[in-house]
Specification:
The protein is an alpha/beta fold. It has two domains: 49 residues; 251 residues, 2-enoyl-CoA Hydratase, Chain A, domain 1. It is built from 14 helices and eight strands. Strand 5, helix 9 and strand 6 form a beta-alpha-beta unit. Helix 1 runs antiparallel to helix 2.
Length: 317
């Protein structure tokens, strides 16, 4: 897949183009002809990338969180969950492929895993509705959480959505009620639940599967009650002011951990999770494993109380 460069990565893109050009020239002039030049350019690319990613603002992080090559739920399931068996349908209306879930083993431990999938290309994005779940997606998630509690399985959720599907069909089938039921089920679950914000966690579409004992967030992910574009459109009457809205909304991992909205920041590889998906996925697995160790010791009542106290503490000094 061709590299996708963000606006602030243009100097990196230019150097990468020069590296490609020299690599092609070396094929005609003989091996090793430009090795020194290529090595120097690659070193400079590394320096530029490290410098750029060390000083990101909220809007740049928003762009990274939405990067099309960023690992999605299917990638995390493939990398972290063994013997994964997808469970489909809400047993009421349909199967929503914007929210996927099923049974598997996380580093040897049986778990229920639920996540939002955006898709990687045109075909899969249409299939998964760009990660915008309909009511049946949240009702499926509730069904899977019921099953997890029945068999005493921890629940791992992965959040990456611009929001729930806002279409007429969703409203007709009660999307607000479905999200509320999902949030309620997360809060009343008698087994450990860990939610990880892997990309963008926007609006109720995110919280419907994220009201967990521990909420983790990747370093360059974002989490908010509405997207920056939505905020700018509603409050500022100008969607073009999204960049300023992103900065004002306190949506970055650093902002959120200070407000106690999230509990742990997972460091991403230099250049973002899309630069080294395998390493990013491994770090997410390590963080989840560490958090699970303490939660597995708690009783169902203690888990519910732990979850309640966590949410009562949000925004308090």
């Amino acid at each position: 897949m061709a590299a996708h460069y963000l606006d602030f990565e243009r100097p990196i893109a230019e150097l990468d183009a020069k590296i490609d050009e020299l690599s092609k020239l070396s094929e005609t002039t003989g091996p090793g002809a430009f090795d020194a030049e290529i090595a120097a350019l690659r070193a400079r690319v590394g320096e530029l990338r490290a410098e750029a990613y060390a000083h990101l603002n909220a809007w740049q992080k928003t762009q990274i969180a939405r990067h099309p090559q960023r690992p999605h739920f299917i990638d995390y399931a493939d990398g972290l969950i063994e013997e994964f068996v997808e469970l489909r349908g809400d047993r009421k209306y349909a199967d929503d492929q914007a929210i996927l879930g099923g049974l598997g083993r996380f580093r040897g431990l049986p778990v229920m895993v639920i996540g939002q999938e955006k898709g990687h290309d045109t075909t899969t994005r249409i299939k998964h509705n760009f990660g915008a779940a309909r009511p049946e997606g949240y009702r499926k998630a509730v069904r899977l959480m019921d099953l997890a509690e029945q068999f005493n399985l921890p629940v791992l959720s992965f959040i990456d959505t611009g929001g729930a599907y806002p279409g007429i069909g969703g409203e007709e089938r009660g999307v607000a009620e479905a999200i509320a039921r999902g949030t309620e089920r997360c809060l009343t679950l008698g087994t450990p639940m860990i939610a990880t914000i892997t990309g963008e966690g926007m609006s109720g579409g995110a919280i419907g599967i994220a009201a967990a004992n521990r909420v983790l967030i990747l370093e360059h992910s974002i989490y908010a009650v509405i997207s920056p574009e939505g905020c700018a459109s509603i409050l500022l009457r100008d969607r073009a002011m999204a960049e300023g809205a992103a900065k004002a909304m306190k949506i970055t991992a650093e902002d959120l951990i200070g407000l106690k909205v999230v509990d742990r920041i997972i460091e991403e590889p230099v250049g973002g999770a899309h630069a080294d998906p395998a390493l990013a996925i491994s770090r997410v697995g390590d963080a989840i494993e560490a958090e699970l160790k303490s939660l597995l010791k708690l009783s169902p009542d203690d888990l519910r109380e732990h979850r309640a106290q966590r949410f009562y503490a949000i925004g308090r000094p």
